[in-house]
Design brief:
The protein is mainly alpha-helical. Helices cover 37% and strands 4% of the residues. Strands 1-2 form a two-stranded antiparallel ribbon. A hairpin with a 2-residue loop joins β3 and β4.
Length: 307
């Protein structure tokens, strides 16, 4: 091949390589549970995974260790034992804690974050930060993040942030979406479906659901979670609901009665509150209703508002 032909070929190969290097990062995939070591350390990882999957068996109303939580399992919110892409997974948990959080105005440990979930999402009491169960859950999260560089959040971690919509989310429209798509699993009354002492499908409101201090009580968190995971059969590659439907059904869910729990120490600097935190005081003059349902565009810097 003549040199004049080789040069363009090499240039095309270089461009293709650069496109691959700068393309979207691969979505995180969890390690295979078959690789958990047969050792005391591996036993801790397996126990931590069991605690995430079957929290109610240990801490629910019929728990074997304590009766200190609402009967939900961690994986009712952290899908597939905290491994589902954009299903509130644990891929970044080990590598990003300890970290400063605006909500508390302090540097928090991973143990503190887990206990926040016990208090808020499980509407219960914190567990011993140095106890066997806490250390097992931390060990499980550390094992999940074995290939994740410390300090990084891999693609697919946590909950996706949907575009802020130009109109307020509408609970009335959301009720129609809920009744059409969600009642098979969660019931028309939102109380979920039990299998023995555990919830196979969690209650979305009522006394056994998460309280008003839970992160997923924020409508943007609920909408992002729903869009990529609900109803059953949805995947992040193939959502079943539109973005508007996800916002509206989230509005319906967060409008329903649930345990109210005030956390007056949250957001010590009110300027750092997310726009959809539904409880004042605020650094702006918008109402709690506006902060709960939107529209949020005028509350945000122009650079952060997406169509």
């Amino acid at each position: 091949m003549r040199r004049s032909c080789i040069v363009p070929v090499l240039m095309l190969a270089l461009i293709a390589c650069r496109r691959q290097q700068h393309g979207p990062p691969a979505v995180w995939t969890p390690p295979d549970t078959a690789t958990i070591a047969r050792s005391p350390a591996g036993d801790a990882v397996r126990y931590g995974r069991a605690l995430v999957m079957h929290t109610a068996r240990f801490f629910g109303p019929e728990g074997s260790l304590a009766k200190s939580a609402n009967g939900m399992n961690c994986q009712n919110c952290h899908l597939a034992a905290g491994t589902a892409p954009w299903g509130n997974n644990f891929s970044a948990a080990w590598g990003t804690y300890p970290k400063y959080r605006d909500r508390s105005g302090s540097v928090e440990s991973l143990e503190k974050k887990i206990n926040d979930c016990f208090e808020r999402s499980l509407n219960g009491r914190p567990i011993d930060s140095s106890g066997r169960e806490m250390q097992a859950m931390v060990a499980y999260m550390r094992w999940l993040a074995d290939k994740v560089p410390r300090g990084e959040r891999p693609a697919g971690s946590g909950i996706a942030q949907l575009p802020w919509q130009p109109q307020a989310a509408d609970p009335a429209r959301g009720k129609l979406v809920y009744m059409r798509h969600c009642t098979t699993c969660h019931g028309p009354d939102g109380q979920g479906k039990k299998a023995g002492a555990e919830f196979l499908y969690p209650p979305l409101w009522g006394q056994q659901s998460f309280n008003t201090g839970a992160g997923i009580f924020r409508i943007s968190k609920m909408a992002g979670y729903i869009y990529n995971n609900m109803p059953q059969g949805t995947t992040w590659q193939e959502p079943m609901l539109t973005i508007n439907e996800a916002w509206d059904v989230a509005a319906w869910i967060v409008s329903q009665p649930r345990p109210y729990k005030a956390y007056p120490a949250d957001w010590p600097d009110i300027r750092t509150k997310p726009p959809d935190h539904p409880f004042g005081p605020y650094a702006d003059s918008f109402s709690e209703t506006r902060h709960k349902y939107g529209p949020f565009g005028s509350m945000l810097p122009a650079s952060s508002v997406k169509p």
